[in-house]
Structure formats: C-alpha cells, structure tokens
C-alpha cells in the first residue's frame, strides 16, 4: 500500500514519515508534503491508499484536501490530525467521511492502530468490490454463453469493464460435469454445495495470481475466462492447467464420485471473447468420442457440425432390415453410422442428436405403433428429449440400439399373438374399403412395402392369401345384407365390392355351399 503524510510542521512530518518502519505494516511507499496544495498534487500523481493530514495548513487546509480526495476516490482512507479539540472540526470530518481523527500531540501507537484499521477496511472494501465486479462480469459471460445477450459486442465490452486488467492474452475454459443428470442427482443438496465450494476453492488456489471470471458452476456447463500470467508461455500455461484439472478430478472423485471435462480455447484478446467461448465449447465436443474427465484443446479453424443427414441408400437398407426383422443387419448398419460420425472433425452434440433422430424416424416409420408416447406431436424434435442427458457417442448409440432391439423383439413375437402393425394396417384398410376395388398393389402402397413382400408377409401372418381374405370378408358382409335387407342378390354383390355377378355366386357357393338366394331362404325363412 501507499501512504501520504501532509503537515506543515517539519518535525512532525519527518518524524511520521521516517520514524516508523511502515514496511512492517505492508506499506511500501511513503510520500510527504508540506502543505495541502503539494499534498493534492502528490495524491493525483501517486494515488496513495491512506492519507494522514494536518487540518491547519497554508494554502489548501486538511479539510479541503480531504473533501477533494473523497470526491476523487470515495474509498480512500483519510486520517485527520489537529492540535485543537474543536468540535466543529470533528463534525466536519464526520461529514466528509474521514477514516479517523487524532489530536496532537500524536501518540504513535494510537496512530499505527488507526492506520491498521484503515488498511483492514480498505482490503475488505476491495474484496467486496472485486467480488461485485467479478459477479457482474460472470453474469455477462453467462448471458453470452446462453445467447441471452442480443448485442454480443456490448456483452464483451461489459465484461472488459469489470476486469481490472485487460492487458495480454486470455483463455476461455468450458467445464462440464460428467454424468450431470445421474451423478449430481445422487448427491444431496448439502453435498452438492460442498462440491461447488470445493471447485471454487480449487479455482481460487490455481488462478489467484491471474484475474479470472467464472459463471455459475451449478449449471451443467460453466465457463472460466482467465488472463494468462506473463510468467507463462501458452504451452507451459496449458500444462499447468492440465495438472490442475488432473488434481481437481482426483479430489472430486474421492470426495463426490464425479469428474469434470474441460474444453480450452486458444489464447486471444478479451475483445475476441465470443471466438474464445466458441473454441472452448467446440473443444468439449471431443468428449463425444473420447469420454469424460479429459482436457480438450481447441482445434484451429474449428467449425461445429450440427447437421448430419443420413444417405438415402442407408435409409433404404435400414428400413428393409427392420421390415425383415434382421437384427444382424440393423446392428451392422447402425454401428457403421456411428463409426463414421465419430470420424467427423467438429461433430457437435447437436449433430449426434440429429443422427439419432433420423435413425429413430426410420424405425418408427416402419413400425408407427411403437411411437405411442410421441403420437401427440409430429415435430422432428420429439425424440431429442430422449438424449437430453447423454454425453458420449457410445451412450447415444446404445440408446438407439436398445429401442431398435426392443421393437424388433416385439414384432418377432407378434406383439403377443397379434399381427404385426403392417398387416394390422392392411386388414383395417380392407375392412374400411372392401367395397372399392382392392389389389395387392393398392395394399402394398398403403403399407409402404413392395407388392411381392406384402403378399409374402400377408400370407405368413394371416394364414391365407390376400385375395382369399378379401373375398371372405366380402362374403361375410354379403351374408349380413342377405339376412337383414330385401336387396336383390346382384344389388348385394355391388354393395360388397364384387364386379361380376357370376364370380360373386361362385365365391359365395364355395364359401357357404349354396347360392346367395338359397342362403337367404335358409337363413331367413319366408324371405324370397
């Protein structure tokens, strides 16, 4: 700290400046002035932390000097000395906001205690101010991270405003709790607070000599913006951070059973904050392939890949494998897609989620009844919630395969003895449209499969060919009309979808052993 002593009496001024070893009290610079005017000039030049001044001095007196200092620096500590026990002086001193008031002759022990008290108050104020400034910067940093700040350049400027030193290079680090949803939920609120406090302590321990800003670590992902100390090169700073991260994870694992992954940007100016944040987040995408608990360094020229469309040929092959309940082919195709996705530089979590959505769209396109819980919405985002808490590629793939295997198993078992959905869809369509002209091609188009495969699947599931099933249903409907109406036989034929009366009679007789007219006579005696 710096101290300024102002007194027009040489003996007092010299005695206070030289007669006390101020270095013992963490004061490394002492200035002295013979009057208020000289003291004001020295104050503006050196901005001392504490000022000891006599009240009565030629030119600018001590009260006027105190007012000027407090206007310029409200936090400055001023101690007034006076040879007069005048209440008016004391009253004015209180109004100005001086730190203390001492009557001459000065008692050194008492003055030293006043200086120490002023130091303590100054340090407390600076700590509060540092915390307030850091909190403000953290809020702006968090707004930028969440995209809540519309004017991004203004957000960066606000952060700069709250940093005391913006010289040199900064690095942005994005830290993400591994297994956020599962592991943190297993901890009690009290244990979580202890864990956050531990991380805060570790941050302060490592970066105490380097100004830093950190966002709320209670979020799944939080950010640390740190100024590189001049004693470090970029490589040595990175090495020290890797060691710190290793030690931090060791502590977190031992105490709380959790780890954090860290994405690190390249060094840059604080004005390039948006780029630094993007690099740090992009680096964390390495977690998808390599797993958590690791430090990932930003790749030069990183561009996040958020869109991952499946090739059409893959869609067709996968849909065909699902239709045929070919587990081996499904496994191979899905494995291949995730393997190829893992080789894409810059693949983001959004890109992996889109891949999963596309794969599930194919599955539920073939077996729509398996998507019961999502039927309220036709939006493609319906399945993103499934992957909300997933972090690595393997868990994404396992969830997709689990849903595929469950569906294929249910379909292989006939859903408890019922027809598979495609055939149930076909029989429902037949019952609703039997009066119209129906062909294998019509039903194949309705179910979305080839005519040959439809005929094979229908015969296998229902036990009779499609045409025979259709005729049986039409005959059942014809029998109902013959029993309950006075329609003539050819009118009944037309009502149930037959186009040829002779063919209708042949099919009817083959099914019932008699003609339509004879059936009516026996079924409803007295009706012709």
UniProtKB/TrEMBL annotation:
| Keyword match Phosphoprotein | yes
Q: Where is the Response regulatory domain?
A: 2-119
What are the transmembrane regions?
A: none
Lineage: superkingdom: Bacteria
Q: Does the keyword Transmembrane apply?
A: no
Q: Which InterPro entries match?
A: CheY-like_superfamily, Homeodomain-like_sf, HptR, HTH_AraC, Sig_transdc_resp-reg_receiver
Q: In this chain, where does the modification 4-aspartylphosphate occur? A: 54
> Which GO terms fall under biological process for this protein?
phosphorelay signal transduction system
CDD domains (alphabetical): REC_YesN-like
- HTH araC/xylS-type domain spans which residues? 424-522
Q: Which Gene3D superfamilies is this protein grouped with?
A: 3.40.50.2300, Homeodomain-like (1.10.10.60)
Q: What keywords tag this UniProt record? A: Cytoplasm, DNA-binding, Phosphoprotein, Transcription, Transcription regulation, Two-component regulatory system
From the Swiss-Prot or TrEMBL record, state where the protein is found: Cytoplasm
**GO CC terms in record:** cytoplasm
Q: Name one GO molecular function term.
A: sequence-specific DNA binding
Instruction: Using the record for this protein, list the coiled-coil segments as residue ranges, or answer none.
Output: none
Official protein name in the record: Two-component system response regulator YesN
